[in-house]
Amino acid sequence: EQNPKAVIVIFGATGDLAKRKLYPSIYRLLQNNRIGKDFAVVGVGRRPWSNEEFRKNVNTSIENNVPEHEEMDEFLSHFHYHPFDVTNPGSYKELKGLLEELDHTYEIPGNRMFYMAMAPEFFGTIAINLKNEGLTSTEGWSRLVIEKPFGTDLPSAQKLNDEIRAAFSEDQIFRIDHYLGKAMVQNIEVIRFANAIFEPLWNNRYIANIQITSSEWLGVEDRGRYYESSGALKDMVQNHILQVVALLAMEPPIKLTDEEIRSEKVKVLRALRPLKENEVSDYFVRGQYGKGSIRNEDVPGYREESNVDPNSNTETFVAGKLTIDNFRWAGTPIYIRTGKRMPAKSTKIVVQFKDIPMNLYYNNGHNMHPNLLVINIQPDEGITLHLNAKKTGDGSYARPIKLDYCNNCIDGINTPEAYEKLIDDCLRGDATNFTHWDEVALTWSYVDTIAKAWSSVAAEFPNYASGTMGPDASDDLLAKDGYHWWPVT
Ligand code: BG6
């Protein structure tokens, strides 16, 4: 397979995402021979930077994020800066000239990746101007990569979608959900569909429940302004968590193409039982962190953070019970939880299998430990299978044992970062790990009811101390069904 040749245009080139993720990823793609020398990056931003200033910034970003780097001058020479006013058609005309020049210099056949890594209010304007000014009509391909948030509810997502669809067709649009670039999220399908011992059991007859936890110990940091209008439900559940749910619950695709996989994911999201506004409190719990202690350091509550309303009703924690109404899953709940200022940064899936029909063995007077399959997404990457076995000389006692597979112990530092994978996929035209509009629409419509129910009643916040696993109500949610959260830290 030939390496792709393209100009990557980054809107928001001076922003945080570009610095932390995009430049280092492009560098690693070059290091790993996923792109050749025939590429260029155009940074677009409001600031009046020169190429030199831009390259200095890119250089710092590589130094801070990539441990081994060399031949930086050659790499940086591919980077060009274009100061830009999003609403001025003249800016697009100049950009067009620059892109044509770069096509010529690097012998690029008009392939363009337009990466939106800036304030979402401009996504639509930029897309339509790119089209109107002719930047997307070349001999090669044009693709639009678009970051979250993709709208703030279904109507606004629909509006944004209509705007970008006026300029790009669905198969040219790559909506980023960076969880889909994570090695172990991509491994969910492989674990399920490449192992004869899991797939036959992967249903409501053998699985009691599935638990997805994505916790962070960081607070809202300097993102108060954005987070106030979002909250954990829209920030994490609508996108990352529901994508993971779809991968866990989908039927095996008939082929590994983006259309086939997507169509199975969409079916799961369609089977997700929608909540009525008055049932939301039976299925979903919200929380907001108060002050507390994280890693032996006192930290303030959410309402004391900068750019946050001192009476804020915004949730920083969500737990929920999802039910999927189809033959495979009816009766098997999927519990999810995510939040900030929890004890650790950790994303894990626990699949709890049903108990065996009767206990033949003793486990120190307790019931047998159920079998668990734990998929460790981060920071450890791998799987752990909890079984029962007898130690030598243990009579008729059975004890829980663990089989561990650690993915990043083997691939180590070479495990590609999510963004590196996603940029690589997009350059190669593979949309499997991006979200299709149908998925976005279904997840928003599910989440909108919850948001609506919550916005109409003020919450009793704060209701969990920083450094804890969220409010008690999150434990009660599972206790009602006779389950509990398995420890994940
Ligand atoms: C982002 C959210 O999409 O995902 C952040 O906006 C969150 O609030 C982040 O911290 C979590 O991603 P990761 O890869 O660190 O688990």
Automatic annotation (TrEMBL):
Active site: 240 (proton acceptor)
Ranges where the Glucose-6-phosphate dehydrogenase C-terminal domain occurs: 190-486
UniProt xrefs under Gene3D superfamilies: Dihydrodipicolinate Reductase, domain 2 (3.30.360.10), NAD(P)-binding Rossmann-like Domain (3.40.50.720)
Pfam families: G6PD_C, G6PD_N
Pathway connected to this protein: Carbohydrate degradation; pentose phosphate pathway; D-ribulose 5-phosphate from D-glucose 6-phosphate (oxidative stage): step 1/3
Keywords: Carbohydrate metabolism, Glucose metabolism, NADP, Oxidoreductase
Positions bound to NADP(+): 12-19, 46, 85-86, 148
Catalytic activity from the UniProt record: D-glucose 6-phosphate + NADP(+) = 6-phospho-D-glucono-1,5-lactone + NADPH + H(+)
Record-listed E.C. numbers: 1.1.1.49
Glucose-6-phosphate dehydrogenase NAD-binding domain boundaries: 9-187
Superkingdom of this protein's organism: Bacteria
Residues the entry annotates as binding substrate: 178, 182, 216, 235, 340, 345
Entries under InterPro entries matching the protein: G6P_DH (IPR001282), G6P_DH_C (IPR022675), G6P_DH_NAD-bd (IPR022674), NAD(P)-bd_dom_sf (IPR036291)
GO molecular function annotation: glucose-6-phosphate dehydrogenase activity
Purpose of the protein: Catalyzes the oxidation of glucose 6-phosphate to 6-phosphogluconolactone.
Annotated family: Belongs to the glucose-6-phosphate dehydrogenase family.
NCBIfam families xref list: zwf
Name the UniProt record assigns to this protein: Glucose-6-phosphate 1-dehydrogenase
Lineage: Bacteria, Bacillati, Bacillota, Bacilli, Bacillales
